[in-house]
Model the fold of this input.
Amino acid sequence: MADFVVTPWEVRGSVDYDELVRQFGTQRLDGGLAERLARTAGESHFMLRRNVFFSHRDLPQFLDAVERGRKVALYTGRGPSGSTHLGHLMPWVFTKYLQDAFGCELYFQMTDDEKYLFKENLTREETLAYARENALDLAALGFKPDKTKIIIDTQAIKRLYPLALDVAKKTTLSTARAIFGFDNSTNIGSVFFTSVQSAPALLPSVLEREKTGKKNAVVPVLIPCAIDQDPHFRLTRDVSDKLGYPKPALVHTRFLPSLRGGEKMSASDAESSIYTTDTPEDAERKVMRAFTGGRATVEEQRRLGGDPEVCSVCNYLKMFFEPDDAKLAERLRAYRAGEILDGENKQYLAGKVTAFLKEHQRKREQARKTIDKFFWEG
Ligand code: TYM
Done:
């Protein structure tokens, strides 16, 4: 038995990504396929080169469609239960790279309904307010309203509902229980919810059919997300065929780890995550207290070197903040050799994080003026 758990609502223990690929039945995204994606996109991305995006479903089929010049779409999302943290930004940064490369539309779902159903302590008004707030982060990353539809579930449900019904009708309670582990105490909204998360994967084909009048038009969809969301789309893929839509393809990222050394930043432990709304001072303080791969004493670290594999500071640089491969390799070498100690490494990361936050927060505030243009109401 694996000693970790990954579901859309919980990540616990030390995640073994190879084991997860086996458990979930996905494919590894490495070697030739990673290179093919970079070639098709016209340039590489550091998250691809470093195997941060490490797993996929049907990516080759999606790339076939792109290479043949067919219309394609991207789909990703956010469950608005609080402020956005840096882990959430990872799939969005990668999505931006893909959107720029393929010139296609992005459907971005804000599941305010999900967070209301799954979180005891949140009201509908609160999750809706977070949806609007979190949307600012998307705009700050440079997405443009003419190619990005943000779908807030409770606001756009009229367009999602028929599709969610189609998915729900083809999904049995026993399938939902097997995939998500629901039990008799689960509220029935939570059981239905997964069909709402399926809907945007089918929506681009529906809109294309409406626009062209072609009953069988299909638009292949690629979903970038962390691996925790995969169970939803396993279900989507099972039913989409039966409903006459293409199976959505997926690319999965690893989790940006907790600053405290755990597997995934946790929204319930504010010190383990950096939020896009943190002041630069707070973010710096969190980085300076981070869990590292250092030794008990300076003398030991100089003699034996640090371990970048377990070091959250090194992992933040690798997964997010140091896109330059040569600089990263040199820093990790020096850390391993004991030439760079934790204090300096943390200071280096803190500089990058605070610079990022200042710029992101400036763009985030600017976006308040234009954000309404992103919201899609059908
Ligand atoms: P949510 O809000 O939990 O997460 C938003 C996105 O961030 C990913 N993620 C992470 N990625 C890297 N490191 C982490 N530490 C980390 N934590 C979370 C998630 O996988 C997700 O991609 N139900 C979804 C919202 C949703 C969605 C979608 C997500 C609706 N449709 C389609 C992806 C694709 C949710 O609650 O995400």
Notes: The two ends are 45 Å apart (CA to CA). Strands lie at 4-7, 10-13, 27-28, 53-57, 73-78, 105-110, 148-152, 221-226, 249-253. The mean pLDDT is 96.
